[in-house]
Amino acid sequence: METQAYHLSLFITGASPNSVRAINNIKCICEKYLPGNYELEIIDVYQIPEIAQIEQIIALPTLIKKGPSPERRMVGDMSDTAKVLRGLGIVIKD
Amino acid sequence: MTKKRSETSQAAHFSTLQKSPTGINGLDEITKGGLPLGRPTLICGSAGCGKTLMSIEYIVRGALQFNEPGVFMAFEEKPEELALNVASLGFDLDQLMADKMVKVDYVHIERSEIEETGEYDLDGLFIRLGYAIDSIGAKRVVLDTIENLFSGLTNESILRAELRRLFQWLKDKGVTAIITGERGDSTLTRQGLEEYVSDCVILLDHRISNQISTRLLRVVKYRGSMHGTNEYPFLIDDEGISVLPVTSLQLNIDVSTETISSGIPSLDRMLGGDGFFKGSSVLVSGTAGTGKTSIAASFAHSTCLDGKKCLYFAFEESPMQILRNMLSVGMDMSKHLKSGLLEFHASRPTMYGLEMHLVAMHKKIKRFKPEVVILDPITNLITVGSVSEVKAMLIRLVDFLQNERITVMFTALALNNTLNEQTDEGISSLVDAWLLIRDIEFNGERNRGMYVMKSRGMGHSNQVREFIITSKGLDLVDVYLGPDGVLTGSARQAHILREQTGIALHGQAVSRKDREISRKRKLLESKIASLQTEFESVEEELNKVYLEEELKNQILETTRLEMLEKRRGVEGNNKQKSPGSKKK
């Protein structure tokens, strides 16, 4: 389960509860399932409002998996780990 | 919070709600000024009824006419598609975007690409919208169609809560917003957006009856404002949307005593001298081939000759046909077409619904600003709607035209008497003047008789005139009322001929008598002359006798005196007297 590094962008809105939870959750997931094989970028949309249009963002927080393809989007506070993993394309073998 | 806000705003400027004009033809009249300023308005309707077009027109007209920048957030169409759509209406969206008057933001949501992993909100949308609004200072916002969110995201409770927050946020931003929504089965919108947008709801509809489609608009609700409540037909054409308000419900139109000639001098005389009143409505009805179109065309012709504009709606013949036919009765109307005084609009009544005809006519009249409008014939409109619908439509047209002080002439075909009643009944109470042309069949001929059924406010003739169409034009002549009834056509001509012969015979008789009298006078005069000469000769004779008598007496006297002297014989006396006598 290695090959390309995961390139992830997380879009948040300041320090809202959802954003804070999302950061914590995604960090946990990445550390657990993709140790050392990911690059996580956290962007505060409040700071760069024009990014919302460019990245086609409606709901927040949004996590965009830019690589490896295909591109996937996940919205929410990333509390549903199974769904996040499915979105990232990680298959858990237990 | 909302209540408090509205209370304070009401206190600030008493009763009236401020409005944002749409610039869309007719819509501002129905809503008495436009959409509620600073509040969201819902436009809903089924697919293809013009929601997107109406909302984009609101934005574009806002930018062009009212200098108000606008944001169009599209959930369905991409900016390029939108630009193409409005280009068909003659608006350059790209240029407006370059001028920073319009901003189009296309929102792409695809459910298959999105995984929902827990709690979220729509802050992304808020930020996007907020950024778009602030970047151009927008006053107008359109969200088309926000319900698409429901197809992209599944958590309805979040979406509903967020939508409620969105509309409140738009209000707080002070922008006038249009939200479009697809029509649901039992609700106005599929997702019940009307719950959230409660200030103004406009419903668009697209109805098909008798295979003819009509677009209709209705203001379902407009909080804090008066508005028209009817269904108004609207038209989408190359100039955008035009809504037709059912015009004035009052009858307080200024009237005119000015008149306008009918183009037929003898008809003017029949109407009391000068023709129709300006701004009145005239109905010309008659059976087939009685010359209704000729009357209408001659009215148009004379109007144009006066240098006034005339708009001719033909529902039966093409303009070329009318021009050719009118040339045969001595009217050259093509020159008016060239000078731009006359305009033809020929269309089959079945081209679109009745209401659409009305809207289309409305638009053309507003643009062309004619003094005279002709509808030839209105009968054909019956094929599109029922009699009562046609009547309702014509009432509105007449209302509108009277407001604009335009004289209108309708022609109506009457097939037979029963239908005639029906057709005419529809409109006869409405019009100010009604000319009826009747066929008069007599003596193996068909002739046209015309009479003025009514002419409000004019001392019009109550007589039937014969209506004749010649190569020199139209004319009305008196018919003859003989013992056999009304005489027209050749019977009338024969009657005229008979009268003329009578006059000639009479004239001859008179002149013969005159000659006899003069002859008698001459005879008498010659007799008098001869008597005169006779008298003169008698007089002369008598005078001669008288002179002789006097001479004789004189001579006798002298001889007597001489004789007397001789008898006395005195010498002295003789010597004394002789020179005297010698002298004598």
Please characterize this protein's 3D structure.
The complex is a heterodimer of chains A (94) and B (584). Chain A has 94 residues and is an alpha+beta fold. Chain A has one domain: Glutaredoxin (3-Layer(aba) Sandwich). Chain A is built from three helices and four strands; from the N terminus they run E-H-E-H-E-E-H. A four-stranded mixed sheet of chain A has the order 2-1-3-4, covered by helices on one side. In chain A, strand 3 and strand 4 form a beta hairpin. The longest helix of chain A is centred in the N-terminal third of the chain and has 17 residues, at 17-33. The two termini of chain A are 15 Å apart. Chain B has 584 residues and is an alpha/beta fold. Chain B folds into three domains: 2-113 and 121-243, 3-Layer(aba) Sandwich (Rossmann fold); 259-482, 3-Layer(aba) Sandwich (Rossmann fold); 493-568. Chain B contains 17 helices and 25 strands. In chain B, a hairpin with a 2-residue loop joins strand 20 (433-442) and strand 21. In chain B, helix 13 (354-368) runs parallel beside helix 14 (387-403) and helix 14 runs parallel beside helix 15. The longest helix of chain B is centred in the last third of the chain and has 80 residues, at 489-568. The A-B interface holds A 11, 13, 16, 18, 21-22, 25, 45-46, 49-50, 52-53, 56-63, 71-80, 83-84, 86-87 and B 105, 107-109, 113-125, 127-128, 130-132, 149, 152-153. Strand 4 of chain A pairs parallel with strand 6 (114-116) of chain B, so a sheet runs across the interface. Chain B: Residues 8-23, 573-584 have a biased composition (Polar residues). Chain B: Residues 1-25, 562-584 are annotated as: Disordered. Chain B: Its EC number is 2.7.11.1. Chain B: Pfam families: ATPase (PF06745). Chain B: InterPro entries: AAA+_ATPase (IPR003593), Circadian_clock_KaiC-rel (IPR051347), KaiC (IPR030665), KaiC-like_dom (IPR014774), KaiC_C (IPR047222), KaiC_dom (IPR010624), KaiC_N (IPR047221), P-loop_NTPase (IPR027417).
